[in-house]
Design a protein that fits this description.
The protein has six helices and no strands. The chain is mainly alpha-helical.
């Protein structure tokens, strides 16, 4: 009866408890580290638990001794499950950070493309203003990804300036002399500041 109780403890711990880590919500790719760790844990725990039962039965070990051994195995399994969960949580955090970085830069690149399209419709030939824009666009290709608030702030300010330029150009009205030049110089200054942030 005691051995039957130990067997029930082993398999009730093995299947329901360890598989709880696989039911968590989230992207499958972020759960791969935990799934691999849990699979190894399932296999090792099952083998070791069955081995302990077998040797306990062969040696006639007392129930308390077997229960203590299985408690130790269960504790080790819980630690592995916890590590698996934290590894998945870390992958989620890294993925979210990378998404934030990419979103900011992609918004900047898309705004530059829209501004260039508006400029080329207004000025089919290369002008000083268009050349300034192309220089800023080329600089943006080499920006180092960053989650720093200062970097994100500079990116947003550049986007705001470019959107304002696009609206002025798309309006088709005659602009005061040097209006676009001043705005592009502002964008260039912000871009220079943003390029200094390397991490």
């Amino acid at each position: 009866m005691a051995r039957l109780a130990v067997i029930c403890i082993v398999f009730s711990a093995n299947f329901p408890l360890l598989y709880i880590g696989r039911w968590r919500k989230g992207d499958f790719n972020t759960r791969i580290p935990a799934l691999g760790l849990l699979s190894i844990c399932d296999y090792l725990y099952s083998c070791l638990a069955v081995a302990v039962i077998y040797f306990g039965w062969q040696s006639g070990a007392r129930f308390r001794t077997q229960l203590l051994e299985h408690s130790f195995l269960l504790f080790a399994a819980v630690i592995v499950v916890t590590i698996g969960r934290y590894s998945s949580a870390h992958v989620d955090e890294v993925t979210e950070e990378q998404g934030t970085i990419r979103a900011g830069l992609e918004n900047l690149w898309a705004t530059l493309d829209r501004c260039e399209a508006a400029m080329r419709l207004r000025e089919p030939h290369i002008s000083r203003d268009l050349q300034l824009l192309l220089t800023i666009k080329d600089d943006a290709r080499y920006l180092s990804p960053s989650l720093a608030k200062t970097a994100l702030s500079y990116e947003q300010k550049i986007v705001n300036e470019l959107e304002g330029i696009s609206e002025l150009v798309a309006d088709g009205a005659t602009l005061p002399p040097g209006e676009l030049d001043i705005r592009f110089q502002q964008c260039a200054a912000l871009m220079a500041l943003r390029k200094q942030i390397l991490n």
